[in-house]
TrEMBL record:
Ranges where the Tyr recombinase domain occurs: 119-316
Spans traversing the lipid bilayer: none
Source organism of this protein record: Micromonospora thermarum
Domain of life where this protein originates: Bacteria
Protein's UniProt name: Tyrosine-type recombinase/integrase
Domain Core-binding (CB): 7-98
InterPro entries: CB, DNA_brk_join_enz, Integrase-like_cat_sf, Integrase_catalytic, Integrase_recombinase_N, Integrase_SAM-like_N, Tyrosine_recombinase_XerCD
Keywords in alphabetical order: DNA integration, DNA recombination, DNA-binding
One Pfam family in the UniProt entry: Phage_integrase
CDD domains referenced in this protein's UniProt entry, alphabetically: DNA_BRE_C
């Protein structure tokens, strides 16, 4: 047995967190790691034979039996999402220990975990918010130092009318816009290496052509070579993740719709709006799956379920139902 298996679990947790710090997680994420690790470790210390104080818990005490008991107690008052997150953190912790040669194997596959809940869609709020956003961004803003409405409109239109992820937008090349006028398509390098083709309707085609024309005027014909990035910054260089996020945030501010953007969604809210409107207009889960590049039908089905729930809530809010309820005889009692 490696002599580190006698080390304090708390000490090894701190070594793991130090390793994670080099990957630049947010302070909130790092604190969530620490909380999940210490909370389950404290429960494991109580489940050990004999029970131990947390600061005296050695690594070798974390047997599958002890970990199963600790996670059972951890799960009782918590949501499935919280339990799944804690399980993933502990799985990463043991993977770190295995990679360092501190333990010979990872016991977490022997510990049950709930299925990861599918995230709820977070589209822009307000029925006409996307139209307001596009209209505001299409106008040159005199307050900007170097306004480029054609480029800003192209970014938003690609997200709202093609449902592209941030990474997919950044991966686009000029040649990704393929086909003849009227039959245009986007060749998208999707998540997990899954390519897909998204049809480009004439309205989006015009926006993209106008953007490329404005780019030629700014930087010359060489700037729109087929292998060039499709989306560039105001210096003509490829847009990066931070620059794209800042651009979208600035568009929200210019349109005055910041309060209608779900927290934590930012650019992804545009993709969710695209998918939600597909569902509202009657697209099937299979069609949504193909257009958005989902790995599973369940992810696509979530948009249909949310849309159906919203429709039912809208019907329920109709004042006529309350009037009708007043005409019905009281139920029960006899």
């Amino acid at each position: 047995m490696h002599d580190k298996e006698d080390e304090s679990v708390l000490q090894l947790i701190e070594e793991f967190l130090t390793d994670r710090t080099t990957r630049k997680p947010s302070p909130h994420t790092l604190e969530a790691y620490r909380r999940d690790l210490r909370t389950v470790a404290a429960l494991a210390a109580e489940e050990a034979t004999p029970p131990l104080p947390l600061d005296a818990l050695p690594l070798h005490a974390l047997s599958p039996r002890v970990l199963r008991a600790a996670f059972a107690r951890f799960a009782a008052p918590r949501s499935a999402a919280s339990v799944h997150r804690a399980w993933s953190t502990w799985n990463s912790f043991f993977s770190f220990l295995v990679a360092d040669g501190i333990v010979g194997g990872n016991p977490m596959p022997a510990v049950g975990r709930p299925r990861a809940p599918l995230p709820r869609p977070k589209p822009l709020r307000g029925a006409d918010t996307p139209e307001q956003l596009l209209a505001a961004v299409a106008r040159a803003d005199g307050r900007q130092r170097d306004p480029w409405p054609e480029r800003d409109l192209a970014v938003l239109a690609l997200a709202l009318c093609a449902g592209l992820r941030l990474s997919e937008l950044l991966a686009l090349r000029v040649a990704s816009l393929a086909g003849r006028a009227g039959e245009r398509r986007l060749d998208v390098a999707g998540k997990g290496g899954r390519p897909r083709v998204v049809p480009v309707e004439p309205e989006l085609d015009v926006v993209l052509v106008d953007y490329l024309d404005s780019r030629r005027r700014r930087f010359g014909a060489r700037s729109v070579r087929p292998d060039s990035p499709l989306l560039v910054d105001r210096r003509g260089e490829a847009l990066r993740r931070g620059g794209l996020q800042y651009l979208v945030d600035s568009c929200y501010r210019r349109a005055g719709i910041g309060d209608r953007v779900p927290r934590g969604a930012r650019l992804h809210a545009l993709r969710h709006t695209f998918a939600t409107r597909l569902a509202e207009d009657g697209a099937s889960a299979a069609e949504i799956m193909r257009l958005l590049g989902h790995a599973s039908l369940a992810s696509s089905q979530a948009y249909i379920e949310v849309t159906a729930g919203q429709q039912r809530a809208a019907v329920r809010a109709n004042r006529t139902h309350r009037a009708l309820a007043g005409l019905l005889p009281a139920q029960g009692g006899g």
